[in-house]
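Why should sequence recovery work at all? Because a backbone constrains its sequence more than one might expect. Tight turns favour small or flexible residues, buried strands favour hydrophobic ones, and helices have their own preferences. The token representation captures these environments compactly. In the example below, the structure is given first.
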């Protein structure tokens, strides 16, 4: 049943006037059958003929465009019905067509138009239809009440449609704002990553410059030392070229202009941190009120400086989120060195279910930055709540051997 409903909605989306066309066709057939086979009465003795049939078709078929021209449809339906009653034709079910026409006017036109159309229709019923059909007072009052209900119902539908349209516009605006905030967050994080990678590459180039100068000085007297220096220069250069490629990839992925002087001088001149400074980071977090238990597994191999920096920033951001959002909690940090990879895991272990990251909502920009850093080194990041409270951030950063 739900599949049929979905298909019908899809058809309506492609052809919005198809339902009205089907309704008009069905009512036209029913009205013509009723007109031809209807019983003649003393008040409505006239037999069916071409004029009457034409009036029935005009009234019923006009419903096909009731959404596009609702007032015109009501005029045609009400006018044709009034003429039929005035010329003593038998009842053909056209009052239902007029009822739908009035509802359409109320649902798609302004209230002033609806009030005038309703008043004119009630006057036609009282002056023409009631005497021609021999209605008594109760039937007349009931008929007028039904048409008034149709007008009120259509007006309410119009108000509800306007309300839902406003909700959709607000939802679309919020979605645009969310996308814009996420886009800015990605851009800012990429700029920050680019700056840090620039520091890594600049440091490596400084090492190359110094080593090359020393090598040139000792190459004649100590060739073995010069060979070792050249090997160091070769290793450092290859690592720096890899970081430079990543730096260019970051800058090309975010070509929009940004303020190159954003951030303080201390941030720009401070050396780039790495996992070697993890104990210092954990100490600062503990001083802020969140105890942290750290575990390091595996042997620290020759981790490239860029990977080391990205891993440090991911742990730093995850612990910062614990400080900002978790309230009274404690954290666990796992750093596991694997073959050509570094695995990180930060757990926010709340003292109770209400103290976890789920208790408060953040902007999500921290996760955006962590994912950018993980993706930069061909890794992935997984973040989500834990069963029973708490939050988990896990990331894997990969690198090639030097």
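From this structural description, the recovered sequence reads:
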């Amino acid at each position: 049943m739900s599949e049929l409903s979905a298909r019908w909605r899809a058809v309506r989306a492609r052809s919005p006037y198809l339902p009205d066309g089907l309704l008009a066709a069905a009512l036209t057939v029913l009205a013509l059958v009723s007109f031809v086979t209807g019983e003649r009465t003393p008040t409505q003795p006239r037999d069916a003929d071409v004029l009457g049939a034409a009036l029935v078709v005009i009234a019923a078929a006009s419903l096909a465009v009731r959404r596009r021209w609702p007032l015109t449809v009501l005029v045609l339906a009400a006018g044709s019905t009034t003429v039929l009653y005035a010329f003593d034709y038998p009842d053909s079910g056209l009052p239902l067509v007029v009822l739908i026409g009035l509802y359409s006017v109320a649902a798609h036109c302004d209230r002033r138009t609806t009030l005038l159309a309703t008043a004119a229709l009630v006057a036609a019923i009282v002056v023409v239809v009631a005497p021609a059909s021999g209605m008594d007072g109760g039937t007349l009052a009931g008929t007028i009440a039904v048409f008034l209900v149709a007008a009120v119902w259509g007006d309410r539908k119009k108000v509800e449609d306007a309300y839902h349209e406003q909700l959709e516009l607000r939802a679309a605006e919020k979605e645009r704002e969310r996308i814009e905030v996420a886009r800015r967050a990605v851009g800012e994080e990429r700029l920050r990553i680019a700056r840090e990678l620039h520091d890594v590459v600049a440091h490596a180039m400084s090492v190359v410059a110094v080593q090359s100068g020393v090598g040139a000085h000792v190459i004649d007297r100590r060739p073995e030392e010069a060979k070792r220096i050249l090997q160091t220069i070769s290793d450092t250069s290859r690592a720096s070229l890899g970081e430079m490629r990543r730096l260019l990839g970051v800058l090309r992925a975010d070509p929009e202009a940004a303020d190159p002087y954003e951030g303080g001088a201390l941030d720009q001149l401070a050396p780039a941190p790495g996992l070697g400074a993890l104990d210092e980071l954990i100490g600062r977090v503990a001083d802020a009120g969140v105890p942290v238990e750290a575990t390091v597994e595996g042997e620290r191999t020759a981790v490239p400086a860029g990977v080391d920096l990205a891993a440090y920033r991911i742990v730093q951001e995850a612990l910062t989120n614990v400080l900002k959002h978790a309230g009274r909690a404690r954290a666990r940090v796992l750093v596991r060195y694997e073959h050509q990879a570094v695995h990180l895991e930060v757990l926010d272990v709340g003292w109770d279910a209400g103290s976890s990251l789920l208790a408060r909502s953040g902007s999500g920009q921290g996760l955006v930055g962590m994912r950018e850093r993980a993706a930069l080194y061909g890794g992935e990041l997984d973040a989500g709540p834990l069963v029973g409270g708490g939050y988990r951030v896990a990331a894997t950063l990969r690198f090639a051997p030097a």
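A few observations help interpret the result. Confidence is low (pLDDT under 50) at residues 254-271, 352-362.
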